[in-house]
Design goal:
seven-stranded mixed β-sheet, 2 domains, Spore Coat Polysaccharide Biosynthesis Protein SpsA, Chain A
Length: 316
C-alpha cells in the first residue's frame, strides 16, 4: 500500500463527507493505493455515524472510535498503529488542510528520501489571538529542539512508515513529533509550505491553555531526551555544585569563628549571626537532596523495561 491517511477528529461531522471525497479524488488522479483512517476522539455529534457510512461505501475507509475524548496524541498513536501504508500522511478533519498537498508530500518521502516532512502554513487565516502565540511557541520549540521548522503544530505532515512505528506519542506530544523523530535518530526532516484554508464547518477546538501545556511538554521532552537514561548526570552534577557551595560557605564560617577566637579569645560572635551559616546549611541540604534524587532516578532507570530500548536501522 502506498499511503495511509490518518485523520484525528472531534465533532467534525459536517466536514467529513467533503474531506473524504476530496481525498479520494486526489488519490484516484495519482493512481495511489491507499487507506483513510478516521480516529473519532469521543465526538458528541454524528461524526461516528458519518464514518461508518463512509466505510460501508468504500472499503478503503476505516475508523477508530474512542469512548471519550482523550486528545489528539492518543488519536494519532492509535491511527499510527493501524496504518499500513509505506508513507503515512496526517491531516486535520476541518478542511483547513488541503488533500491537494498529498502528492508532493508523498514524493518528498519516496523520492527525496525525507524521513518526515512537516507542513508550514506560511499564510494563515487565523485571528491574531492565535497567530501571535503560535509564532512565539514555534520560536521556543526551534530553540529547544534545534530543528529549523516554522510550524511544529501543523497537522499536515508526511512520514516514512519507519518513523511512526519507532516513536511513541503520548500526553500532548503530537506538537513535537518532529523532535521525537529526531531523538529516535531520524535526522532527515524537511518542511513544505502548504495551503491554509479558512474553517468551513464546525467550530475551532483552539484553547489558550494549550500553549502553557505545550511549554511544559517541551521542557519535559528536552529533559527526558537528554537525561532520561542518565538522571545522575543532571541531578548529581547540580547536587554536587550546591553541596560544594554550602561546604565553601561552611569553611568561611569556621574560619571567621576561628579568627575571632584567636584575636579576642572570646566565642562571640555566634556563627548563627553570619549569613554564610545559612548559605552553607541550605547549600549542603539541597545538594544532598539533589544527589539522592539522581541516585533514586538511576535505580528507577536500571529497573525499567525500556532501559535498553533502541531504534535499529538495519540488521543483516
Amino acid at each position: 500500500m502506498d499511503i495511509s491517511v490518518v485523520v484525528p477528529l472531534y465533532n467534525e461531522a459536517g466536514s467529513l463527507p467533503e474531506l473524504n471525497e476530496w481525498i479520494g479524488r486526489v488519490m484516484a488522479e495519482n493512481g495511489y493505493k491507499y487507506e483513510v483512517i478516521y480516529v473519532d476522539d469521543g465526538s458528541t455529534d454524528d461524526s461516528w455515524t458519518v464514518i461508518k457510512q463512509l466505510s460501508e461505501k468504500d472499503t478503503r475507509v476505516c475508523g477508530i472510535k474512542f469512548r471519550r475524548n482523550y486528545g489528539k496524541s492518543p488519536a494519532l498513536h492509535c491511527g499510527f498503529q493501524k496504518a499500513q501504508g509505506d508513507v503515512v500522511i496526517t491531516m486535520d478533519a476541518d478542511l483547513q488542510d488541503s488533500p491537494d498537498e498529498i502528492p508532493e508530500l508523498y514524493r518528498m518521502i519516496r523520492e527525496d528520501g525525507y524521513d518526515l516532512v512537516s507542513g508550514w502554513k506560511k499564510k494563515r487565516y487565523d485571528p491574531l489571538s492565535k497567530t501571535i502565540p503560535t509564532k512565539i511557541f514555534n520560536a521556543t520549540a526551534r530553540k529547544f529542539s534545534g530543528l529549523k521548522l516554522h510550524d511544529f503544530n501543523c497537522g499536515l505532515k508526511s512520514y516514512n512508515k519507519k518513523v511512526i512505528k519507532s516513536i511513541e506519542i503520548y500526553n500532548d506530544m503530537h506538537r513535537y513529533i518532529p523532535y521525537l523523530a529526531r531523538i529516535a535518530g531520524f535526522n532527515k526532516i524537511g518542511e513544505k509550505v502548504v495551503q491554509h484554508q479558512a474553517r468551513k464547518y464546525g467550530s475551532t477546538k483552539f484553547g489558550i491553555n494549550r500553549f502553557f501545556n505545550g511549554y511544559l511538554d517541551l521542557i519535559t521532552l528536552w529533559f527526558t531526551s537528554r537525561f532520561g537514561k542518565k538522571p545522575m548526570h543532571f541531578f548529581g552534577v547540580l547536587g554536587s555544585l550546591m553541596f560544594l557551595i554550602g561546604f565553601i560557605a561552611l569553611v568561611i564560617v569556621l574560619a571567621m569563628k576561628l579568627a575571632s577566637i584567636l584575636s579576642s579569645g572570646e566565642l562571640k560572635p555566634l556563627i548563627t549571626n553570619s549569613p554564610y551559616f545559612y548559605i552553607s546549611l541550605t547549600g549542603m541540604i539541597l545538594g544532598t537532596q539533589l544527589f539522592l534524587t539522581g541516585f533514586i532516578g538511576e535505580l528507577i532507570v536500571r529497573n525499567s523495561s525500556q532501559r535498553n530500548s533502541y531504534v535499529i536501522e538495519e540488521d543483516v
